[in-house]
Amino acid sequence: MNLKILYAAGAVIYKYKGGLMKKVIFSVQYAVPVMLLFVLVLAGSAMGAGFALIEQSVSGLGNAFAGGSAGAEDASTIFFNPAGLTRLSGTQTVGGAHLVMPSAKFQNEGSTHALQGITGVPLRGDNGGEGGVNGVVPNLYFSTKVNNKLWLGLGINAPFGLSTDYDNNWVGRYHAITSEVMTLNINPSFALKVSDRLSVGAGFNAQYLKAKLSNAIDYGTLCFSLAGPSVCAPQGLMPQAADGTVELKGDSWGFGYNLGLLYEFSPATRMGIAYRSHVHHKVEGDADFSNTPAFIVGATRGWFTDTDVNASVDLPASASISLVHQINPQWEIMADVTWTQWSIFDELRFKFESGQPDGVTTEKWRDNYRYSGGITYKPGNWKFRAGIAYDTTPVRGAEYRTPRIPDGNRLWLAGGLGYKISDRIQVDLGYAHLFVDDPEIRKSVTTAEDTLRGGLRGTYDASVDIISAQLRFAF
Q1: 118: Cβ–Cβ under 8 A, 6 or more apart, which residues?
Q2: Among 91, 239, 268, 365, which is least packed by CB within 10 angstroms?
Q3: pTM of the entire structure?
Q4: CA 453 to chain centre
Q5: Which residues, in sequence order, are CB contacts of 318 under 8 Å at separation 6+?
Q6: Would you say 28 and 439 are in contact if contact means Cβ atoms under 8 Å apart?
Q7: 49-85 pLDDT per residue, tens
Q8: From the CB of residue 4, how many other CB atoms can be counted at a distance below 10 Å?
Q9: DSSP assignment, residue 439?
Q10: What's the burial of 294, exposed, middle or buried (CB within 10 Å: 0-12/13-18/19+)?
């Protein structure tokens, strides 16, 4: 990350505010490299069970992220609502990590093969083992109060992630074997206190995306469709008996912004409204093919050979509205509704420089909504949190669900605690269990894109556990 712009902006404010900003710039100068190093070390495994990762705050996890855009409990408000920075005093750094442990076990229920009517052989293979992969979602935030009107902040996190991995010979191998998506988001922000009740905030997002996807290719069935059994059988190119693989790898930088508003109806009640823009990625990389028969290469004019590949990926916009109400000094309740524009994810299309036809997976996702409520009890230096949430899946139906993202509706039950060790240090812990509606897959060989992949049919037994820890340090 190039910090020249950040430093230049700081220098201008320094001239205006003298010694105060000297301390701020000094803190940013040394805190930012440490934050980047921390996230870059962990971000390689920052892949949760879903595509969008809401696990951006440990204090928020304890309440199932209810009140996310109005809570403003610590510097993690940079992600949820930058306007919340105006509720923070002094300078603070927050570092947290979420261990995400998804489980996705597939059970085959009569998957079919395109030539089953001729060969009598269905789609073969085992159930794939444990498809879920444990991962770490890291977050780091830095905030500082410049004066009574202006606050600055910097967030570094992983807002999107995905990881599934199946046995190489499982029944759905032509759809997916390994799927990995990692993002790293750098989010400088500021907030202005417009009045005693109203605060506004904004941020800029520079986002890095890295992806790796692999699957098997049924060269036997492809040969039968190109040349027929009489040509293919003598060469050993039989359906489901001459598999190769392809691995697609690529990365991209994209850019976006986030906006927020915080309104305090009274010292006890406040509302937050926040928006994060969509981010467009032009992913460029390589397609590596293995075990491609020479006959296939010749018959397809050089297709299925190593080549460059690219894909356009739009990560969705989101908006939320939250309420927080303090019943008395010890009890606080909160609620949130969040919308995510997943309808932007219509298809996943890869374009090959070799001239090979595009690799297409139709998604047709729809916008999804997340509803949450929570409560916090604050006796002395302790905070005890609990929350519940319901997350609707963006997957439109079983015919569009893929083993790369076997998503379903999710019910969250969460709890957490925080302890203020001193005026400078606070520790937060959180845990959540996600009950996932058993996702079903109902693919059909009559669909053009799934003719070679097979009519995968089955049900997942899925769930997610999340364990989180966070350290908050005030300068």
Answers
A1: none
A2: 268
A3: 0.90
A4: 26
A5: 52, 275, 276, 338, 339, 340, 341
A6: no
A7: 347 999 999 999 999 999 999 999 999 999 999 999 9
A8: 7
A9: -
A10: exposed
